[in-house]
Design goal:
Length: 171
């Protein structure tokens, strides 16, 4: 097979894998969300950040060492933006956050796709945060190219989304 055909086949496989992962993650949990949660109505009252705590469940889909590094970045960003995190997974919290992450090799590196779902104390999903980051490392395991800068950006995106959601009434 010519090199261009192999390259095209890899690109198509990579895009299909990203699409399949995105669809799979989008199907996680119930679909009881209505409307666009990021843009609440004008009657929404901002939630006081100091009255709210977040507990993060263990991340799904990523190696433990990368998950630990992401947790550190989230803690740093949360402190910077005055988002209060619980120190233990089983601690009482206003909201629980479950993170699903996947890294897929592409011709230009890797695509890291993430979904974070926010649940209330009763287990009802209230909000979903999605996104992706690109890594330029092309050899080997797609997680190998996920360094501190990428994890910091994912953490920053997540914390800013949570802050905006609280400011919009957290519904």
């Amino acid at each position: 097979m010519p090199a261009t055909a192999i390259s095209l086949a890899r690109r198509v496989r990579g895009l299909m894998a990203v699409l399949a992962t995105t669809l799979l993650l989008a199907g996680c949990g119930s679909s009881n969300l209505t409307g666009v949660v990021n843009f609440p109505g004008s009657d929404a009252t901002p939630v006081n950040q100091s009255d709210v705590t977040f507990a993060f469940e263990p991340f799904t889909g990523m190696p433990g060492n990368v998950a630990d590094a992401l947790a550190e970045q989230i803690a740093e960003q949360a402190e910077t933006y005055d988002i209060v995190l619980t120190k233990r997974v089983d601690a009482d919290a206003t909201y629980r956050v479950k993170g699903f992450l996947s890294s897929v090799s592409t011709d230009n590196g890797a695509s890291i796709v993430y979904v974070f779902d926010v649940f209330d104390a009763s287990g009802t999903r209230l909000h979903r945060i999605t996104g992706n980051q690109q890594s330029t490392v092309t050899a080997g395991d797609p997680w190998s190219g996920v360094g501190t800068a990428i994890l910091r950006q994912i953490a920053l995106d997540l914390i800013l989304e949570l802050q905006g959601w609280l400011g919009g009434g957290a519904r």
